[in-house]
Amino acid sequence: MLELIPNQLGFPLLSLMIFVPLAGAVILLAVRDARAARWIALLFSIAEIGLSVPLLANFDGSIAHMQFGESLPWIKDWHINYRIGVDGISVLFVGLTALLTTISIMVSWTAIQDRVREFMIAVLFLEAGMIGVFVALDLFLFYIFWEAMLIPMYLLIGVWGGPNRLYAAIKFFLYTLVGSVLMLVAILAVYFSAGGTFDVLALMNHPFGHTFQMWAFAAFFAAFAVKVPMFPFHTWLPDAHVEAPTAGSIILAGILIKMGAYGFLRFSLPFFPSAAISWTPAIMTLSVVAIIYGAYMAFAQTDFKKLIAYSSVSHMGFVTLGIFALNSQGVEGGLLQMINHGVSTGALFLAVGVIYERTHTRMIADYGGIAAKVPVYAAYLLIITLSSIGLPGTNGFVGEFTILLGAFQYKAVYAVIASLGIILGAGYMLWLYQRVAFGTVTNPHNEHLQDMNLREIAAALPLLVLVFGVGLYPNAAFQVMHASTENLIKHVQAKAALAPVAAQAANALLGQ
User: Is-contact 281 510, C-beta < 8 A?
Assistant: First the structure.
């Protein structure tokens, strides 16, 4: 049984990580100067990175319990508490959120010229909501943060996006809202079924009936599958990525779409284990379809950003494939690949933003031969391309390899089909790089391109360090998550076995 270990640092670290960005957003309300707004937002985001240092340094990866715990009564009549903590499944996402938010502000320094103050407020508000999602241990509190994220992301796309920004923003909002409403219904059903509690740790041990689990799992699945996004709930993603500003794309790819997979790990699997086992064959099938479909669609794209968006559909298929293999290699590989995808795809969208700011086009045909003009940019793009295709020595290889091990243990056919996705991924990414960087300069407007400046290099450097750091020493990440993932797998197996009828139904489905 998981416990909430009280915060041992003497100050409310996780609360600070939620409220420091909010404090920055409030201060920005009184600021009128755009340059000052940029610096204030950057300083508050760097402070958030500073807070993540003691979080990661003092985290004990040898235990599965929730650490840095804080619990205060909030709405007593409904048994709602302000209850937060982190374990090996969530702690790395808190650090990644802090890093990518700072990078997003840096790459927006000159790209955003209109309503700069409002833009920075939206980014800081979004950061607070994202961190809240990863640390919330009360279902009501989690839902508040989950919904709060919609508002600033809707604004980032709808106000500072491209020509079709309103269409993309409304589509993003409607897709995610429909899933969220279904999840809200399930949360209320869980609350009443469990005797009136929103406590996540208590709900993990409540013996929900198999029929209830099947329906509740489906409702949670609707919200999380849209957010991942899983095939066929993915159609909002390419539009959102294409129209979003660079910062919006980095945050969307790096953090927001991970929250669907995180929801499966934090809620769906431990709350409804027998339903999860029953749903596994269908979800594994959807995952391999997403891997192949996303890669196939990426080949057909002429827009740099849309190609990366479809590659995200493919890569997130690997994540759900690993998670629902329900073994140590698969779950840990899926969790690591969520981090890796946030690094690599966030870095790819940074690369798109850098070149778009100079050329004002995302069409791949408008580039060609730019390596001779911007060698630093070309080298950066090459490294991130190799990371995205999973070259050994980079972060992408470790996650995909571990996922394939887990999928093979579950059923070899899934691993074989997923392996085709890796081959296709190498094909479209290398073809993209060849068309962008190699050959002679095909567009006369690119003859005088400026290479990456110091600000852009500083924004990209942490991502490059993570590409090789995780690729060469993945054990640092595995040590953080291992105890929590092992506990999750044992919990799912033990809780499913407590319901003989559910176990028989699950075994019958697994044997098909």
Answer: yes
Q: Which value, in Å, is the radius of gyration of the alpha carbons in the chain? A: 22
Q: Which of 431, 427, 424 is nearest to 291 (CA)?
A: 424
- pLDDT per residue as tens digits for the range 40-65: 999 999 999 999 999 999 999 889 88
DSSP 380-410: HHHHHHHHHTT-TTSHHHHHHHHHHHHHHHH
**Do strands 66-75 and 80-86 pair parallel, antiparallel, or not at all (unpaired)?**
antiparallel
What gap in Å lies between CA 385 and CA 45, rounded to an integer? Answer: 27
Tokens standing for residue 310 = 């479809």
78 within domain boundaries? no
Number of domains, the chain: 1
Side by side, the strands of the sheet bearing 4-6 are 4-6, 66-75, 80-86
- Say how many CA atoms lie within 13 Å of 434 toward its Cβ: 6
Residue 320: domain span: 272-512
Can you tell me which residue has the tokens 């953080």? 480
Residues 6+ apart with CB under 8 A from 195: none
Q: Check: CB of residue 426 under 8 Å from CB of residue 388.
A: no
Q: Determine phi and psi for 121, rounding to 5 degrees.
A: -60, -45
Q: Is the pLDDT of residue 184 over 80?
A: yes
Find tokens 């129209």 and name the residue: 243
Residue 196 falls inside a structural domain? no
SS3 assignment, position 4: strand
Residue 12 preceded by cis peptide, ω within 30: no
What crossing angle do the helices spanning 475-497 and 328-359 adopt, rounded to 10°? 130
Tell me the pLDDT band of 360, cut-offs 50, 70 and 90.
confident
Residue 232 domain-assigned?
A: no
- In three-state secondary structure terms, 1 is coil
Which residues on neighbouring strands pair with residue 71, listed in sequence order?
Answer: 83
Q: Is there a domain that residue 487 lies in?
A: yes
Report which DSSP code applies to 447: T
User: Which stretch of 220-234, 410-424, 426-440, 486-500 has the lowest confidence by average pLDDT?
Assistant: 486-500
Closest by alpha carbon to 338, among 358, 322, 324?
322
Phi, psi of 259 (to 5 degrees): -70, -25
What phi, psi does 442 have (nearest 5°)? -95, -15
**Closest by Cα among 251, 171, 194, 276 to 506:** 276
Helix runs in 204-360, H state only: 210-227, 236-243, 246-251, 258-263, 269-271, 273-299, 304-323, 328-359
Report CA dihedral (133, 93, 121, 141) to the nearest 10 degrees.
Answer: 10
Token couple for 462: 């942490």
